[in-house]
Structure formats: C-alpha cells, structure tokens
Design goal:
This protein has 266 residues and is of the alpha/beta class. It has helices spanning 24-37, 51-59, 81-95, 112-124, 138-145, 166-175, 196-205, 209-219, 231-238, 247-254, and strands at 3-5, 11-13, 17-18, 41-43, 69-74, 100-105, 128-134, 154-158, 178-182, 223-224. The strands form 2 sheets. Strands 3-4-5-6-7-8-9-10 form an 8-stranded parallel sheet. Strands 1-2 form a two-stranded antiparallel ribbon. The longest helix has 15 residues, at 81-95.
Length: 266
C-alpha cells in the first residue's frame, strides 16, 4: 500500500474500499473480506445507511484500530452547527469508534460553513483526526476555504480517466487539500473496462484495464475508493502497486479526459 500525507501530517492510504450502495450482510461481508485482503481505508457516509454494518465488520476484523483509516460524511439532516455536532456523535456511536479518521461534508450545502465549524471543533477535541469536504467544485471550494480556520485535508469528488479534474487538483494544492476520487470506474456510465487505450497498456503490464485506470489516478496523487463486493475484484483493485506507468503511457491516458462530469453533479 502507498500513502499520502495530509496537510496535518497524518498518513492516509491512497487506495480504499468505497461502500456507497453496500447494505446489510453484503456490506459486512465485503468490508470483512476487504480488511482480510489488506484494505485499511474504508469509506462510508451517513447517507449510505451502513455505518452500523461497517462498525460491526471493523469490530470483528481482528485488526487494531490504529491500522484502519475510516471515513464518513455529514449530510442533509445535519445542516446546522448544532445538528452537525449531533451528527458527528451519531456516526461515532453507529461506527462504534472512539474517533473517526476523516469526516467530510457530503455536499456544498448553503450551511456548509456552520457544518464545517462543528467539524473543526470535533477535530480540536480529538473526535476526528482530519476533516474535509466532498463534491466541492472549483468555485465552491475557493469561496469556502476563504472562511475556514482549518484547511480541508480532502475534497472527495468524481474523478476518473474521462474527468480528471486537473484544474481543481491544481487549485487545491495551493491550499494543501488532497483529491479523493469517487466513481473511478464511472459506475457504469462508460465501459471503462473495454477502453482500448487502457486495455492496450494493461496488456504491456499484464494488468487489467481497471488496474490501469486506478494506477493512473494514484500516480497523479489522487486517492481512489473503488467499490466492490466480489473477492476477485477486491484483490484485483488492490494489486496496483507492483508496477508504474511510463510518462508516455500517462500521456496516452490523458487523451481520454473529456473535461466534463458524467453524473451532472456540478
């Protein structure tokens, strides 16, 4: 596993498990298998309604808490300072944790600054090790950080070979914020697994197109959280640290970038 150092000095795995549509026993099994296979970053959110299942899997994993990096997110029901403080405590309770490694604001709500103030206070109190935002585009991000006491460590956004968001990453670097990619495989919006450039480069390295897509983002210092419940895919997604893409290969993949969202999120 490779790690990135966040703006407060803590290290975050550059690859983890996304859990956005995993529920019930399927969620518990996927997280358990992922941890057994070597995943240490687990990403969830209050919106996903699976924090309790993830907490159960963590508790029964046999892995020490210090080895794991757990992310969750505040969402719409926490749209005030007071409600966000309650939401933070709710996540700690549901996850069964004494602290959360990273907590984000799920979207750029109009009350985002109030919500972030609650995150800042929880960070100072030791309830959260790092704080940040999610789905903040360049305009939202730049306006937001002008009023932050603590700079966001992470902005988790849509990012994949068709929409790399290079401009946003460059802007955030000025403020010390790292990019984290959701939907690195486009969630079916494109058949990335059959993308010719990725397949051809994968053949050279004896890797799949999915592994090439992840390796590309990782080499651009973007954290990735692909979602899967299948053990074969979980293993495959993790197996991207024994090779490196050349500059020429990176440039070929860059030609796929269309510069626009596939989800109309923005």
């Amino acid at each position: 596993m490779e790690f990135l150092t966040l703006n407060n000095g803590i290290k975050m795995p550059i690859l983890g498990l996304g859990t956005w549509d995993l529920r019930g026993e399927q969620c518990i099994k996927a997280v358990t298998v992922a941890i057994d296979e070597g995943y240490r970053l687990i990403d969830t959110a209050q919106m996903y309604k699976n924090e309790e299942e993830i907490g159960y899997a963590i508790k029964n994993s046999g892995i020490s808490r210090e080895e794991l990096f757990i992310t969750t997110k505040l969402y719409s029901p926490s749209r005030s300072y007071k409600l966000s403080r309650k939401g933070i405590d709710n996540s700690l309770r549901d996850l069964g944790l004494e602290y959360i490694d990273l907590m984000l604001i799920h979207e750029p709500y109009k009350e985002a600054l109030e919500m972030y103030k609650a995150l800042e206070d929880a960070y100072k109190a030791g309830k959260i090790r790092a704080i940040g935002v999610s789905n903040f585009n360049e305009n939202f991000y730049k306006n937001f950080v002008a009023s932050c006491e603590i700079m966001p460590a992470i902005n988790q956004v849509e990012a994949h070979v068709y929409f790399v968001q290079t401009g946003l990453q460059k802007l955030m670097k000025e403020y010390g914020t790292k990019m984290e990619a959701w939907a690195p495989f486009t969630e079916g919006r494109r058949n990335i697994f059959a993308e010719k450039i990725l397949v051809e480069i994968g053949t050279v390295h004896k890797k799949t197109s999915a592994q090439i897509a992840l390796r590309y983002l990782v080499q651009k210092n973007i954290i990735v959280i692909p979602k899967s419940s299948k053990i074969e895919r979980l293993k495959e997604n993790l197996d991207i640290f024994d090779f490196k893409l050349s500059q020429e290969e990176m440039q070929r993949i860059e030609t796929l970038d269309e510069g626009k969202s596939l989800f109309n999120w923005y």
